[in-house]
Write a structure and sequence with these properties.
56% of the residues lie in helices and 9% in strands. The protein has 449 residues and is an alpha/beta fold. The protein has an eight-stranded mixed β-sheet with strand order 3-2-4-1-5-6-7-8, with helices on both faces.
């Protein structure tokens, strides 16, 4: 996500490297590259021009402090303006009501049905809501079936009626059903088309008028670039939606939709879809997205993902085991499985400041831990709890049982020992203080500390 844009911004800021001050000439050169980077990312031309104009005015109007280089100042100003361009602050979804009604809109293939399932899961697991999914796509039976499959996977009820061909009547009946059964939230999945047409617009406008949703969301495929912005504009003029959902941000997207849509439509981006799995849904935070675009990582999101998988009681037990030098391969396996639950490993690494660029050309598969798990699961309970007993013969048996080789078994055992030492050291507050002092004493300090 935004890899090319990040690279081009970095290239633009290098123009200022070594300059003692910001001048009209070096700012013009830098912003020429910034504008080119935005246009290459499929950002609307007017939006890119307005962005660079504002950045130029702010850059030339500020004195460069002695502790801040011109390049750092330009990054700061670009960051501020990127945040503003994408909406400033995150925008919450409105689910107030009895029940709260969310109406989904968008073209066919934009990911409406999948997103409806993701949103239902998000509201159920993170907001504690009882959710009813409603299938109102009367033209595509496959969409109704898909919603039922998702509902079954998530343990969420789906309301549909294949006999009824009027989506307005289906939506009305679903609202009555939700009220009688005490559902907190209804998510209405509507029909899409391959292109905007009058019939589709009339239909969704009628559904909206009748059910009076508390929130109308426009779902758009971010990979369609400027077409996504144009489609959003057309939908907004007709149904006046409340917010935008960008799907497929994990694909080969240039990011132009994320940067242009708020400026053109003046409606906030509320969610982004970052994968096929039902938990691959993120609230859209302009500040965090700007951080990632400028190569600053996204530590807050990383910590939040970790906290979702974090079990306080288990953590306390693990800390005691580490302090008593009892950390074993069962614990090691448990930690790997926790990391897997947090999502794609490459994506997680990209959230660490400075790691995004380093990870760009590194191919990390979703099943990156598969061989490690296979090796540990091929060990006996004794070997997992006391790795010291693993000799040459045992290594050969473990390698055969896991479909690997002895070198990989040795590599895993070394990784385990290194991890054990590091965790033992970090569990001691005195050691942590000593490490911090060493970092402070390093020449120039630690970047970003």
């Amino acid at each position: 996500m935004f890899e090319n844009l990040t690279d081009k911004f970095e290239k633009a800021f290098k123009i200022l490297k070594g300059h003692g001050q910001i001048t009209e000439i070096n700012v013009a050169e830098t912003l020429k590259e910034v504008r080119r980077a935005l246009l290459d990312a499929d950002v609307n031309f007017k939006t890119a021009k307005d962005f660079t104009t504002v950045v130029k005015e702010k850059a030339l109007g500020r004195d460069v402090l002695k502790s801040v280089s011109p390049g750092q100042l330009m990054i700061k100003i670009c960051h501020e303006e990127l945040v503003e361009l994408m909406g400033g602050n995150e925008s919450e979804i409105n689910i107030k009501g009895n029940p709260g009604i969310i109406l989904m809109s968008g073209l066919q293939g934009s990911g409406k049905t999948t997103f409806s399932g993701k949103l239902a899961s998000y509201l159920k697991t993170k907001k504690g809501k009882s959710v009813l999914l409603v299938a109102c796509d009367v033209y595509r039976p496959a969409a109704i079936d898909q919603l039922h499959v998702l509902g079954e996977q998530l343990g969420i009820e789906v309301y549909s009626n294949k006999e009824e061909k009027d989506p307005v009547k289906i939506a009305q009946a679903a609202v009555q059903h939700a009220k009688s059964k005490g559902f907190n939230v209804i998510i209405v999945d509507t029909a899409g088309r391959l292109a905007i047409d009058e019939q589709m617009m009339d239909e969704i406008a009628r559904v909206k008028e009748v059910i009076q949703p508390t929130e109308t969301l426009f779902v758009v495929d971010s990979m369609t670039g400027q077409d996504a912005v144009n489609t959003a504009k057309a939908f907004n003029e007709r149904i006046n939606f409340d917010g935008v959902v960008l799907t497929k941000l994990d694909g080969d997207t240039r990011g132009g939709a994320a940067l242009s849509i708020k400026a053109i439509v003046d409606k906030p981006i509320k969610f982004v879809g970052t994968g096929e799995k039902m938990d691959a849904l993120d609230v859209f935070y302009p500040q965090r997205m700007a951080d990632r675009i400028l190569g600053m990582g996204d530590v807050v999101s990383l910590v939040e993902r970790a906290q979702e998988q974090f079990d306080e009681e288990e953590a306390r037990k693990l800390q005691k085991r580490i302090q008593k030098d009892q950390f074993d391969l069962n614990d090691f396996l448990g930690q790997l499985q926790q990391i897997k639950k947090m999502g794609n490993v490459k994506d997680l690494m990209g959230m660490i400041p400075g790691m995004g660029k380093a990870m760009k050309d590194v191919d990390i598969q979703d099943d990156a831990f598969k061989h490690i798990e296979a090796i540990i699961l091929s060990m006996t309970p004794e070997e997992r709890s006391s790795p010291g007993v693993i000799n040459g013969n045992r290594k050969n048996r473990i390698a055969k049982g896991s479909g690997t080789n002895v070198q990989e078994v040795n590599k895993l055992l070394k990784q385990f020992e290194d991890t054990k030492k590091m965790m033992k050291m970090m569990s001691n507050p005195k050691n942590m203080m000593s490490m911090m002092k060493q970092m402070k004493g390093m020449k120039g300090g630690m970047p970003g500390m």
